[in-house]
Amino acid sequence: MRYTLVLIPAPEGGYDTVECPALPGLVTEGRTREEAIAMAKEAIALYLRDVVADEDSVPIESEPPELATVDIAFERAASAATQPARAS
After folding, report:
1. Of 19, 20, 25, 59, which residue is least crowded by CB atoms under 10 Å?
2. In CATH, what number is assigned to the domain containing residue 51?
3. Within-domain flag for 87
């Protein structure tokens, strides 16, 4: 079976996160890209084992998910120091 993984690099050298869109809730991580993929393979095997044990149908990825990048207009709110204090 083949599943698409989404690898999300960690900022500032933390752990890479991996998601598998075809398997809802499957998220894992690793210290490196390779470790994250290995952890994902293990998590997928366990996920599928549980699906079969529950007599559910095994999710099949018919087409890989499509990723899109969007631009969002965003204006930061004023910092708490410049906002008026709330009345108690």
Report:
1. 25
2. 3.30.160
3. no
Q: How far is Cα of residue 78 from the mean position of the Cα atoms in its chain?
A: 31
Return the number of other C-beta atoms located less than 10 Å from residue 29's C-beta: 17
pLDDT for position 83: 58
- Hey, what amino acid is at 7? L
| DSSP structure string for 1-60 | -----EEEPPGGG-PEEEE-TTSTT-EEEESSHHHHHHHHHHHHHHHHHHHHHTTPPPP-
In a domain, 68, yes or no: yes
pLDDT in tens, 15-25: 789 999 999 99
Task: Record the pTM.
Answer: 0.72
Q: What DSSP state is assigned to residue 69?
A: -
pLDDT in tens, 33-62: 899 999 999 999 999 999 998 888 888 898
